[in-house]
Backbone:
């Protein structure tokens, strides 16, 4: 089950159901749109059936706050994207961390040493990105966000790697990687930041995904930048969630093929 709003665009049911079929697990993964007011009552109902699932925008932090038990990664990120019930207690994990790490390594060819990252956004997705980058030797992150309060709070949680940068232009001047951790581009062709502001040597990663790629990623590729949308991260975080729920590795190739 996927909880969020909106969820109609989500590809999670497609590849998770492919993984369930490949593993011969007789369950169905569904997306359920839920507003903030209905989230807690829904979790109480899901407890009765020992449901498992994922969480997406805008509920990752809210579900984190509802959990009885958190993995170390979920506690560090301050957000939950994977949940399950055990003995009547709500457990939460954050597989976005591992998903982002795998996607970034694929995009950068594994070369993460002293990476200079510009992070757009200050929500739950941004926190997962920072939790992953903490493990990159010598990496630094400049946070560029609309909410100065949230950005400051996020930087204080990750003081070893993060800093606030009010000038996007200055932050982008020597960036190795620019990451969009905002919802911008999810439903329209709006871009989080103009590609012309980014050096051609800088890689671009969008946590948002759309069929055919987001406008931002397409513009980056057209200009010659290495670029990836959120699909690789989505598949990997989904595979890690599946393993968390069922204790077995999913068939990643079946998951990928389901999206072709």
Residues:
């Amino acid at each position: 089950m996927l909880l969020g709003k909106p969820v109609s665009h989500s590809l999670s049911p497609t590849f998770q159901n492919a993984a369930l079929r490949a593993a011969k697990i007789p369950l169905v993964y569904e997306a359920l749109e839920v507003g903030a007011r209905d989230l807690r009552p829904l979790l109480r109902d899901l407890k009765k059936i020992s449901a498992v699932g994922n969480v997406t925008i805008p509920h990752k932090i809210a579900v984190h706050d509802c959990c009885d038990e958190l993995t170390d990664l979920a506690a560090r990120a301050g957000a939950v994207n994977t949940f399950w019930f055990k003995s009547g207690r709500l457990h939460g994990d954050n597989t976005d961390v591992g998903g982002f790490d795998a996607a970034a390594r694929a995009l950068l060819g594994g070369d993460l040493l002293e990476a200079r990252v510009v992070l757009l956004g200050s929500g739950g997705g941004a926190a997962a990105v920072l939790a992953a980058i903490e493990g990159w030797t010598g990496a630094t992150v400049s946070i560029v966000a609309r909410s100065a309060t949230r950005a400051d709070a996020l930087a204080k949680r990750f003081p070893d790697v993060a800093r606030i940068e009010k000038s996007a232009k200055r932050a982008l001047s020597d960036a190795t990687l620019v990451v969009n951790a905002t919802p911008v581009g999810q439903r329209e062709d709006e871009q989080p930041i103009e590609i012309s502001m980014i050096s051609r040597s800088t890689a671009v990663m969008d946590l948002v995904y759309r069929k055919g790629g987001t406008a931002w990623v397409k513009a980056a590729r057209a200009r010659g930048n290495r670029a990836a949308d959120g699909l690789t991260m989505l598949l990997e975080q989904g595979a890690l969630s599946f393993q968390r729920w069922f204790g077995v590795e999913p068939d990643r190739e079946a998951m990928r093929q389901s999206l072709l």
In short: The two ends are 22 Å apart (CA to CA).
